[in-house]
Design goal:
The complex is a heterodimer of chains A (409) and B (103). Chain A has helices at residues 11-23, 56-59, 132-144, 164-178, 200-212, 256-260, 300-318, 373-390; strands spanning 2-7, 29-35, 39-41, 60-62, 71-75, 78-82, 87-90, 95-97, 100-103, 107-109, 126-127, 148-154, 185-190, 216-218, 223-227, 232-235, 240-242, 245-249, 252-254, 285-287, 331-338, 341-347, 356-360, 364-368. Chain A has 409 residues and is an alpha/beta fold. Chain B has 103 residues and is mostly helical. Chain B has a two-stranded antiparallel sheet with strand order 1-2. Classes of the chains: A alpha/beta (409), B mainly alpha (103). The A-B interface holds A 156-159, 162, 193-194, 197-198, 220, 222, 224, 235-237, 265-267, 293, 295-298 and B 61, 63-66, 69, 75-76, 78-80, 83-86, 100-103.
Chain lengths: 409, 103
């Protein structure tokens, strides 16, 4: 028997466990998946919690519901990988050997990286919404908040779900308008980027959207510290922004286990071949999802598209054939813009988000870089797709490779 | 393709003024590019530039975090040396290609 060991049972790891169990013979392959937590969070849903649209019950299910029969599941912290010995040490001293290892340990927010961020105002007037605790604390705060300076700050790149901070301020604009206190809430979007997004067309479109919604943007701001007593954020050049309520997108780092294993870059992401998804340093290790250092978005859609490529390439590796699939960095993100509408971007390593229609050229039903009601329904529908189709590794009617058809240059 | 005369040599640059070929770089070119960015280079600047050139030569990505933890310079001083957009400016002066921000 050969052993395929998967570390991490989030979106990427769970999808791969399902796919590989279906593909690999049970007589020849054991599949084991390890995760320290028993709860699966629908992370795209966290964004909706502060505004009272979703609550905890909408985003939480037991991980056990999503593993196929025939996969060994171990709930344990991982001490470290010893790649030279082809084994993994768990917290309680258990040693797991593998023939092939798949790292899917994701990324975590690390507010402790910014001095003063996780301090006395943390979850009182300073919040994150990338954790269930932060999103719920913020929902409570917003219930009685009477307005003031609402500042959203992105600490540094990369961070997961790159459009979520934009969606947050769009939602905030609609939320406070509907509550009748928008004139008392000044919304400011503070980013280390030079604009609303990285690539020209999406930056222009989203930048204009911020403007029409009366949301200020402060670009090129790399946060150095938070002054709790003065309620200010300060950047490395000494610029200051005052806040009454600070929404922070903290630094994102890969798992500490990666650091303990000496396998990460300076942010604990694992160096990975961006096309084959094989680890740069070890032939029998693959990496998927946020844990990899790929130059594309850290997002569930990316992990999903990558999973189809990885399934094919892992089979090539197992059978000693050259790789036949190549990942293009495809990402696809629905962006809520408030008032029951949304927009959509679709891009990869080489092609920036372009206007057009998706997935069917000229037909849609979704509009790329356009604000439509259908895009919003796409996002809402996605939660069902996530739990019932995506996590279980079933076929989706969308190509893993980005398509140019339907896009306008 | 754009050819630009920097420090009396013709070098190939991108639209944004980054050298196409890092090996065409020398100290005089660095001083000239820095002048265009409004920076007078000191020994400390050159220490940082040296570090960046090593990373570029090794094909490794650069981040402000990585430079801040390099032991050569901390993040705050890095911003003081190359005000505004330190990573972009320092990389340009060091003859590297434009840093990509991915998200």
């Amino acid at each position: 028997m050969k052993n395929l060991l998967i570390l991490g049972a989030g979106t990427a790891g769970t999808m791969m466990a399902n796919k590989m169990r279906k593909t690999l013979s049970r007589e020849e392959w054991n599949i084991t998946i390890v995760d320290q937590f028993k709860t699966h969070y629908y992370q795209p849903g966290f964004l909706f919690i502060p505004f009272g649209i979703y609550t905890r019950k909408d985003v939480v299910k037991p991980k056990n519901d999503f593993f196929p029969i025939g996969v060994n599941v171990i709930y344990s912290k991982i001490e470290k990988i010893e790649p030279e010995k082809n084994h993994v040490l768990l917290e309680d001293g258990v040693v797991l050997s593998y023939d092939y290892l798949l790292i899917a340990t994701g990324t975590r927010t690390a507010p402790e990286e910014t001095p003063g961020l996780k301090d006395k105002l943390w979850h009182k007037e300073i919040f994150d919404f990338y954790t269930i605790e932060g999103a719920e604390a913020l929902a409570n705060f917003f219930k009685t908040w009477q307005g003031g300076e609402l500042v959203l700050d992105i600490a540094e790149l990369p961070y997961k779900c790159p459009v979520a901070p934009l969606e947050f301020v769009f939602f905030a604009d609609a939320f406070f308008t509907e509550r009748g206190i928008r004139d008392k809430v000044k919304i400011t979007y503070v980013t280390p980027l030079s604009g609303a997004f990285t690539k020209p067309r999406a930056t222009k479109m989203l930048g204009e959207l911020l403007k029409t919604k009366n949301i200020n943007i402060i670009p090129d701001f790399s946060i150095a510290e938070v002054k709790n007593d003065e309620k200010k954020i300060v950047d490395f050049s000494g610029r200051e922004v005052k806040f009454d309520c600070l929404i922070s997108i903290p630094t994102n780092l890969g798992s500490e286990m990666i650091e303990r294993s000496g396998m990460g870059d300076d942010m604990n992401f694992v160096p990975t071949d961006k096309n084959t998804l094989q680890s740069r340093d070890y032939k029998n290790i693959f990496v998927i999802g946020d844990a990899a250092n790929l130059p594309t978005s850290k997002a569930g859609s990316v992990a999903h598209f990558a999973s189809e490529i990885l399934e094919e390439n892992m089979l090539c590796a197992f059978e000693g054939r050259p790789y036949t699939a190549s990942f293009d960095g495809h990402a696809n993100c629905y962006i809520e813009t408030g008032y029951g509408k949304g927009t959509l971007i679709d891009f990869n390593y080489d092609t920036e988000p372009l206007p057009g229609s998706f997935p069917f050229p000229g037909v849609g039903p979704f509009g790329l870089l356009k604000v439509t009601r259908t895009n919003h329904y796409g996002k809402l529908l996605f939660r069902w797709i996530y739990w019932h189709i995506l996590l279980k590794g079933k076929e989706m009617p969308i190509d893993s490779e980005m398509q140019m058809a339907g896009k306008k240059l | 393709m754009t050819i630009k005369t920097i420090a009396s040599v013709n070098v190939e640059v991108t639209e944004e003024g980054y050298l196409k070929d890092a090996s065409a770089w020398n100290k005089e070119i660095a001083i000239d590019i820095a002048k265009e960015e409004g920076i007078e280079l000191t020994d400390k600047h050159f220490e940082v530039i040296e570090f960046i050139r090593k990373k570029v030569a090794a094909g490794e990505g650069l981040t402000i975090r990585g430079i801040g933890k390099s032991g050569v310079v901390d993040a705050k001083t890095f911003y003081q040396l190359f005000p505004g957009a330190p990573l972009k400016k320092a990389t340009k002066i060091a003859g590297g290609s434009k840093p990509v921000s991915c998200m």
